[in-house]
Specification:
Bound molecules: zinc ion
Number of domains: 1
Radius of gyration: 18 Å
Number of helices: 8
CATH architecture: 3-Layer(aba) Sandwich
Structural class: alpha/beta
């Protein structure tokens, strides 16, 4: 008897899920897996795209609605935590007592353990330790998701709702390959010479290509990802930045680093092609 494959993706803000993982979500959902997206904040501290009717006061509410619409397009269910967007590194929002980064680490881990015990995912995906580009919320959700992944199966960890322990089988960090970011910046500078990426050091962005263990062919799902991303109207879509002809090349594969169980010491050129690879007879 084979049971349904279950995937949980845990990120910081509305749009992280579709901008980074929209194709992966769409692929597994289309293949019949149960996919749940967990988002820590409503993205209240984000920017507002030009021409969109939103204010700093109602941005969180609007972004929650955008997130719900986007996740529905990609075919996943949603768990939205009630933390506040901590803003970019060094901004006053970091100090807001409601900010995600101000939450006690153990409290966040406990919340994520509850969700892992509720959904019983076989595979968990989050940001890498640097959160793609160093956003404080991305780094904190990576750290706490990793903590919860390790704690969820711990019988000694009491649980208020009485859900039994659940040990997910695999933990992945997801990010853009550094080579792709470099190429993106090169192309983007051609399209828009006075752009925000001029000052970015690509050596601090994304994940070095040689660290990836897993590459998913998601070319079939680029259009779903594009539609899911377009629901985040206040944020603009990464697809807007590229000529149509480049999009399949840029977005046709998603990349992951398998963190648990660790593949250290057995790096090969054979990348995994499925997040559920090696998981037979799922419970
Ligand atoms: Zn984010």
């Amino acid at each position: 008897m084979s049971s349904k494959r279950r995937l949980m993706l845990v990120f910081g803000h509305p749009d992280d899920e579709s901008h980074l993982a929209g194709s992966t979500i769409a692929k597994y959902s289309a293949e019949g897996a149960e996919v749940v997206v967990v988002i820590a904040t409503r993205g209240e501290a984000g920017e507002i795209a030009p021409g969109v009717d939103a204010t700093a006061e109602n941005l969180g509410e609007i972004r929650e609605a955008e997130l719900r619409a986007s996740v529905a397009v990609a075919g996943a269910s949603l768990e939205l935590l009630d933390y506040r967007d901590s803003g970019m590194e060094g901004t006053p929002e970091n100090e807001d007592p409601r900010a995600f980064v101000q939450a006690p680490e153990d409290e966040v881990v406990g919340t994520l353990v509850s969700l892992m015990r509720k959904y019983r995912p076989h595979v968990v995906v989050t940001f890498d330790e640097n959160g793609g580009y160093g956003h404080p919320d991305h780094k904190f959700i990576s750290k706490t998701t990793t903590g919860a992944f390790l704690a969820s199966g711990d019988t000694g960890r009491a649980h208020t709702e009485g859900l039994p322990p659940w040990t997910p089988s695999k933990l992945y960090y997801m990010g853009f390959p550094r080579s792709r970011i470099k190429r993106f910046i090169e192309e983007y500078v051609k399209i828009k010479p006075d752009n925000d990426f001029r000052d970015i050091d690509p050596e601090k962005m994304g994940i070095p290509d040689e660290q990836f263990t897993t590459r998913l062919d998601v070319a079939e799902y680029v259009s779903v990802r594009r539609e899911a991303a377009s629901k985040h109207r206040t944020q603009g879509s990464p697809f807007d930045m590229f000529p149509e002809a480049m999009q399949e090349e840029v977005f046709g594969n998603d990349y992951f680093v398998l963190v648990h169980p660790s593949r250290d010491g057995e790096r090969t050129n054979n990348l995994e092609t499925d997040l559920f690879e090696g998981l037979d007879g799922l419970a």
